[in-house]
Design brief:
Blueprint: H1 3-15, H2 23-39, H3 44-59, H4 69-84, E1 99-104, H5 111-124, E2 129-134, H6 141-152, E3 156-157, H7 165-178, E4 183-188, H8 196-209, E5 213-219, H9 225-237, E6 241-245, H10 254-263, E7 267-271, E8 279-281, H11 284-291, H12 297-307, H13 310-321, H14 327-338, H15 343-348, H16 357-379, H17 383-387, H18 394-404, H19 408-437, H20 464-476
Parallel strand pairs: 1-4, 1-5, 2-3, 2-4, 5-6, 6-7
Antiparallel strand pairs: 7-8
Helix pairs in contact: 1-2, 2-3, 3-4, 4-11, 5-6, 7-8, 9-10, 16-18, 18-19
Length: about 475
């Protein structure tokens, strides 16, 4: 997301490096920023305000003497991006029991899928959500929601053959009260364009049931049209927030910068992938740092906490310690890694990686291709072979290569790398245990030790001098 804008802004800032912030180079930088924003499909009103505010701050008293232009420009642009994106995170307000969330949007915006994703998110946060099928017009809309509900194990409330949306909502509320559901997610009907009939129905639901949240779901790929849609919905319904979908596919990202400013409504959630767990809270500060290439470690850590199963991680560690890590374990670990999203998205969260979008895409594409190849290779093994890699003799490897449609050399190469990885993991665990037994986190001076411990996976020719050199380097980063 924001890839092209991010690259342009970072390039503009790099161009001011090692310079004093003067009127001339500031004028040039502002002109390039204006051009970058327009190319990213940012609304013209937003561009004018954004550039004007940067100019005012750059010419004001906020400039610090002795600091180079690029550092000052990063600070100014970062602060302005945060303001533009809504200043701070605005969480969902769900104070009632049950609380009502009204999902709004045009047909094709991703409203039904976002409703299911929101249910998954609320379940993780300890809520008990109920999906309510209020789209009684679009063919198969209810069936789609029921299919998603079954997949995520969330009940979908509907009244078969009923076209009375008010009755559906009223009975859904009663059903929720009787069955301890504390959040109702209303998947309302969308249209290909805004029309009076659609708005009349939504206005009635709003006036009668007073939903706690009225969230407009916007497809980030629609560009500046998103602003017109958001302003129309807000004028008639008074939105409480926005949900931006398909941000992972929108390299320009102009709509995200435009809708919050033009409507004055906060972006509360963003969809960043096709998986049903890919709905995240929106943090303006974190997004601004990512746009400027400063990474987003906090989101990365939070995602890791969601994705990785602590119990399974402990099992992996125990197997690594005994060099019993199997191909099945590798597949489980790979599955967890996939839940992070694309490798390109992951690289975008790491600070200090000066990698272009094209390079990130290449790395992501090659990584995904290799993962798929490995998956096919492992699935060509028997269950016994997956659990016991040591069984793979030459005849078994030939059979696996044929079944996976790969060269024997590729199969041999992967198995060799897997064995090296297993031994390295065991070696790291043994090293960890060694240091722990010697008094915790302090690094020992191996030159004063007797014989080196025999750690599988490490080159036995690596002498004491080389080990001490490696340990000294590790101390520097403690």
């Amino acid at each position: 997301m924001f890839d092209s804008l991010s690259e342009r802004l970072q390039g503009i800032i790099r161009g001011t490096r090692q310079k004093e912030l003067t009127q001339d180079n500031m004028h040039e930088a502002l002109r390039e920023i204006r051009r970058a924003l327009l190319e990213a499909d940012v609304n013209l009103r937003v561009v004018k305000s954004f550039v004007s505010n940067i100019k005012d701050k750059a010419e004001g008293e906020n400039i610090v003497e002795g600091v180079d232009a690029s550092q000052q420009l990063v600070k100014i642009v970062h602060d302005e991006l945060v303001d533009l994106l809504g200043k701070e995170r605005k969480p969902l307000v769900l104070d009632n029991n049950p609380s009502l969330i009204m999902m709004l949007g045009l047909q094709g915006s991703g409203k039904t899928t976002s409703s299911a994703k929101l249910a998954v998110k609320l379940k993780k946060e300890g809520k008990n959500p109920l999906l309510v099928a209020c789209d009684v017009y679009r063919p198969a809309a209810i069936t789609q929601l029921q299919t998603l509900g079954k997949e995520i194990e969330v009940e979908v409330f509907t009244i078969p053959d009923s076209k009375d949306v008010q009755q559906i909502v009223r009975e859904a509320i009663e059903h929720a009260k009787s069955n301890n559901y504390n959040v109702l997610i209303l998947d309302t009907a969308g249209r290909l364009q805004i029309d009076t009939d659609m708005m009349a129905e939504l206005l009635l639901i709003d006036r009668i049931f007073h939903p706690d949240e009225k969230l407009l779901v916007i497809d980030a790929m629609t560009g500046q049209e998103a602003v017109n849609v958001a302003e129309n919905f807000d004028a008639q319904l008074g939105l409480s927030g926005l949900v931006l979908t398909k941000l992972d596919g929108d390299s320009r990202g102009g709509s995200a910068l435009s809708v919050a400013y033009c409507t004055g409504k906060p972006i509360k959630l963003t969809g960043t992938g096709e998986k049903l767990h890919a709905l995240e809270d929106f943090y303006p500060e974190r997004m601004a740092t990512r746009i400027l290439g400063m990474g987003d470690i906090v989101t990365l850590v939070e995602r890791a906490q969601e994705v990785f199963d602590e119990k399974q991680a402990a099992e992996f560690e125990e197997k690594m310690a005994k060099a019993e890590f199997s191909f099945n374990d590798f597949l489980k670990m790979q599955k967890q890694m996939k839940m992070f999203g694309s490798m390109g998205n992951l690289l975008g969260m790491l600070p200090g990686l000066n990698i272009s979008k094209d390079d990130r895409d290449k790395i992501s594409h090659e990584g995904d291709k290799q993962f798929k190849k490995i998956e096919v290779l492992i699935q060509s093994m028997t269950p016994e072979e997956r659990n016991k890699p040591e069984l793979l003799d030459s005849s078994r490897r030939k059979r696996i290569a044929k079944g996976a449609g790969l060269d024997l050399a590729e199969v041999n190469g992967f198995i060799k790398q897997f064995e090296q990885m297993r031994m390295m993991m065991k070696g790291m665990h043994d090293m960890k245990s060694l240091f722990g037994n010697m008094g915790g986190s302090s690094m020992p001076d191996l030159s004063k030790m007797g014989n080196m411990p025999n750690i599988p996976g490490l080159n036995p020719k690596l002498g004491k001098h080389a080990m001490n050199k490696a340990l000294k380097m590790m101390r520097r980063f403690k």
